[in-house]
Write a structure and sequence with these properties.
The protein is of the alpha/beta class and about 425 residues long. About 30% of the residues lie in helices and about 25% in strands. A hairpin with a 3-residue loop joins strand 14 (about 290-305) and strand 15 (about 305-310).
Length: about 425
Amino acid sequence: MTYRVNAAGHMEVGGCDLVQLARDHGTPLYVYDEATVRQRSAEYVAAMGRGGHVLYSAKAFASPHFLRIVAEEGLGLDVVSAGELDLALRSDFPRDRIHFLGNNKSREDVEAAWRAGATIVIDGSHEFDLLRAVVPEGKRTPVMLRISPGVKPDTLDHISTGQLDSKFGFSIESGAARKAVEEALRHPRLDVVGLHSHIGSQIFALGAYQKAMEIMLDLLVELRDELKFEPQKLGAGGGLGIAYTRNDDPPTPRDFVETVRHALESGCAARSLKVPELIVEPGRSIAGPAGVALYTVGSIKDIPGVRRYVAVDGGMGDNIRPKLYGARYEAVLASAPDRAPAGKVTIAGKYCESTDILITDIEMPELKSGDILCVPAAGAYCLAMASNYNGMPRPKVLMVRDGEARVMRRRETLADLVAAEVF
């Protein structure tokens, strides 16, 4: 939201010169714009209004300062492990706004969620036994059930989650959803407050959400008429896509929320259902546009008639998405973002894998060793899935605002890499 080209001709975000940040802090470097985090969060909250809740999905990116910002903007939080929950609690995130999701929860996960007072989203039958063992006799814990509506959105197969063939949730098609609700209602330690669904990620076509909502509401009719159960809350998931390239034109957070809300309210009216509280769970669409990655160009290799490789000092260790999903990014010369392109290059990482390629065949201006490249829309699922492959420390992370850069996460050291080893 704060991007501009400054008087030096450099890229600037949050009032900070990106070339100067790279010089001062080293690369690879991830930079988040606080104004963008707040604006995207506020847009969701404003669109939701009363009668619903917005939960930030911590798996997209989580760091204490970042979580405090989304909490200040009125968002709740969904976590999928005891580790994410611990980070949230250490960040003083309001416990009554935390939901614990994830398939194959361990007993330690369930115990941590129970102690924290989080709403637990049950994702498999084995969790009924875990909750019976963890929740003390005479006590009850709020839960939701993850339901698979059988909808496959127009997105990559690897990030589609709502279809029948999925490891997540209780399927409506197979009858597992109905059976799970029955079991949950009989369970002596559960307070079933709602149903949850999630159909996938990086979705542009909002019609998939409308279709999923129709299927979920048909289930609610069955549950009302046959089990006398009407959930207080109904989760529609997140998954709204963002622009990774110049050709991407995703819907806005308001488009997403208003589409889902209209489907809920009109669908309930047509079925004479009470309108439950709506829950949505954005992650990528808040963190993604707020972050950029900065790299320094190293070696340049020409293969006549084939391609030019431009290697940078990061790659699949800090951003595995191109290798994992075939994700596509843009790159910009931070010192001269408006310079005309001079031809196609392939931007390669420094990891010892031939597939460690960040961007294949991208038009770039003439580049030289030492140049700083900026990859926009790098705020989600890059650092969250970062690794120490090849013994590489993970990058430093900054939050910028009004010309000041705050360190959110220091760069790892070689000592960090061996901290868990036994010598």
